[in-house]
Design brief:
The chain is built from two helices and four strands. It is an alpha+beta fold.
Length: 83
C-alpha cells in the first residue's frame, strides 16, 4: 500500500497463468472470464464489482499482465481529509 498525492494505492501481483492481451479489456465486464469455466471456478463478477465500487468512490482499478507471466492489479482510491 502506498500514497501518491491524494490517492491511496494498493498493488497486488501474482506469478500465475497471466491474462491474454485480448482478454484484458473484457475481464472487468460482468460475467466475463479470461479462463475456461470448466478449469477455474467463479462467476465472473468479482472484478466487475471491484471496478464499479472503485469508480463510485472516485477511484479506479487496472491490470497489467502477460500470458504465462502473472498479473498485477492496481486499485487507487481518493484519500479523504478528516476534519
Amino acid at each position: 500500500m502506498s500514497r501518491q498525492g491524494h490517492l491511496g494505492r494498493v498493488s497486488i501481483s501474482d506469478h500465475g497463468i497471466g491474462i491474454a492481451p485480448e482478454a484484458l479489456a473484457r475481464i472487468f465486464e460482468r460475467f466475463e472470464r479470461a479462463v475456461p469455466a470448466e478449469e477455474y471456478r467463479g462467476f465472473g463478477i468479482g472484478l466487475w464489482i471491484t471496478k464499479r465500487i472503485a469508480e463510485a468512490h472516485g477511484g479506479r482499478v487496472e491490470v497489467t499482465s502477460r500470458a504465462g507471466a502473472g498479473s498485477t492489479f492496481v486499485l487507487e482510491l481518493p484519500i479523504l481529509a478528516r476534519g
